[in-house]
Specification:
The complex is a heterodimer of chains A (480) and B (249). Chain A is of the alpha/beta class and 480 residues long. Chain A has a domain at 17-313. Chain A has helices at 2-11, 34-43, 48-62, 102-110, 118-122, 140-145, 153-159, 161-167, 178-186, 427-435, 440-451, 453-456, 461-474; strands at residues 25-27, 86-88, 124-130, 133-137, 149-152, 191-195, 204-210, 221-226, 231-239, 246-249, 252-257, 262-269, 281-292, 298-305, 310-313, 316-319, 325-334, 339-348, 354-363, 368-377, 385-394, 400-409, 415-424. In chain A, strands 5, 6, 8, 10, 11, 13, 15, 16, 18, 20 and 22 form an eleven-stranded mixed beta sheet that branches. In chain A, helix 3 runs antiparallel to helix 9, helix 7 crosses helix 8 and helix 10 (427-435) packs across helix 11 (440-451). The model of chain B has no long low-confidence stretch (mean pLDDT 93). The chains are: A alpha/beta (480), B alpha/beta (249). Chains A and B meet through helix 10 and helix 11 of A and helix 2, strand 7 and helix 3 of B.
Amino acid sequence: MEERDKIIADLGNEYKYGFTTDIETETIPRGLNEDVVRLISQKKGEPEWLTAYRLKAYNHWLTMTMPTWAHLDIPEIDYQDIIYYAAPRTKPKLNSMDEVDPELRRTFDKLGIPLEEQMALSGVAVDAVMDSVSVKTTFKEVLAEKGIIFCSISEAVRDYPELVRKYLGSVVPYADNFFTALNAAVFSDGSFCYIPKGVRCPMELSTYFRINAAGTGQFERTLIVADEGSYVSYLEGCTAPQRDENQLHAAVVEIVVLKDAEVKYSTVQNWYPGDKEGKGGIYNFVTKRGICKGDNARLSWTQVETGSAITWKYPSCILAGDNSVAEFYSVAMTNNFQQADTGTKMIHIGRNTRSRIVSKGISAGRSQNSYRGLVRVAKGAENARNYSQCDSLLIGDKCGAHTFPYMDVQNPSAVVEHEATTSKISEEQLFYCNQRGLSTEDAVGLIVNGYAKEVLSKLPMEFAVEAQKLLAISLEGSVG
Amino acid sequence: MLSVKNLHANVGGKEILRGINLEVRAGEVHAIMGPNGSGKSTLASVLAGNEKFEVTEGEVTFCGQNLLEMSIEERAREGLFLGFQYPVEIPGVTMSNFMKMAVNEQRKHRGQEPLTAGEFLKLMREKSAVVELSSKLTSRSVNEGFSGGEKKKNEIFQMAMLDPKLAILDETDSGLDIDALRIVATGVTKLHTPENATVVITHYQRLLDYIVPDFVHVLYKGRIIHTGDKSLALKLEAEGYDWLINDYQ
């Protein structure tokens, strides 16, 4: 047994995205005040209304304190020691791939982001955000033919100000919480997507976020609007270099789903989780929320969370339209000293609304993993249905798994179901796999992927394969 | 093929195996019988490398190699197969995916290329026929929701897929109805060749009607106290173990 532990421990924790790119970066001085907020807005050439919005958010943020209700041990964050804007110095306004800085292209190649010809084969349109700036959006022309807008949020502010102004902050108001106020004040870039009435987006849309520069925070903002009867499947991936310091990531994602429209949002979050001793790693404080605004709207969140030192994230759905349907599928894995407090909120407002929650937590090492979920059924939400399933898988005996389900049902016709299980990878399962010739690492990977299958099967194919590998890699060194 | 000399093993400080000696040659079938708690399943587990047990004394060579120095998976890849008395469930992992990994690990160990999808499917079809295992089961999760009989058939199916040099079958007959017993036992017989060997652990002589042993060993309190041929099993069935135990004491 000891020898086996040693072999596995020697493999260590490989974080294959831990490289940095040697690229000239333009940053502003550390710290945050009104001038910094104005400077960011000015650098992005924003209209006055947006500068004013940022300042309002900033001033509100000053009155707020960091939330402490999560089951997380968060070291104090010095918000004056963070750089709020960093951009690759090459001006990222480009007309063709050849104009992208070769260093930058190599970075995205290493990340496996198919920015070039392979794109056509995989049929994924990508918006890549490095540090604070959107570097390149592919397939824009193909999408434009269908009237689909897919660009960086900065471009959207410039080119489609009415759309942005109408929906920005409409689902997640800046005053929602501490981190949404901070994000609204300093958000640097992110993606914007608009699917016109009745259009089915012919390809997966994808955004990759990358923190590169040291000492910076990343505050991206994503806004997706699916107009009546439209459909889009949206993917988001994130990585960061390996650093001893902690870096802050506080993003906001807003999704508006109008009548008869459908949005599927999938995330594979693999920010740097810190080393085996818990040093370094990303603090990931993210607010994601979507609204099924019209009747028969559908929204689903699928997330695979393996990265970050701390994750604080609750992708939520407001089921406002009658007969709207929302789903949340999550695999959250923590290893070593990682902490995750993640889950969802399903707010039923419309009649005959249905929601489904499937959460699979996996804890290994000395990590702490919590599911926190709220199901609320408002007075007028006749015949609301919710089904929640929260499973926890423990690997080893030094980690923790916690479940915090909240229910608030104000309509007697509602049916709300909740199931929860906790299990362990047993010695018997490992022995069985070993006896068939599988190594312990392969066996653990196999068992974990089997456990998470229901969620992984909701991901688009290419993403599912990537996520499976990621789960196995993130567990290396965890079996004792 | 397998040579066990003076093997002692503990679990939780308690000695279970107390000096096992056993020689198994290619082409042979051995049956190990004995009263409950005599150490039969422990012997199977120790040979497979289960780390729950601590080997305190003795030597085991398998095809010329020191078995006790090998990891569980190395033993398996070298061709040692254990048919489990209680096969475990692995939710969400399909039987076919599980077998694909197992077969390809073994091929890698032998320096062979992994099987193509087509070759693998062909192998699955061919081998599931050995134990009349429905193709529906191979697309289900490993042992999940399988009946007792299906689990045991599934063990022999895996044995067929992996084509081991030495198969140790731990009470493969327990919990089987008459038809399932016939199918499982006939399956094992079909897989027997002059190049491989089988050790069956059983309580009942009826299994040995199908799998005819060259040797029958009686294990008692961690030692093999008697070895005979097929007729010994019949005698045990008729008279029980008392005459041997009394003799031994």
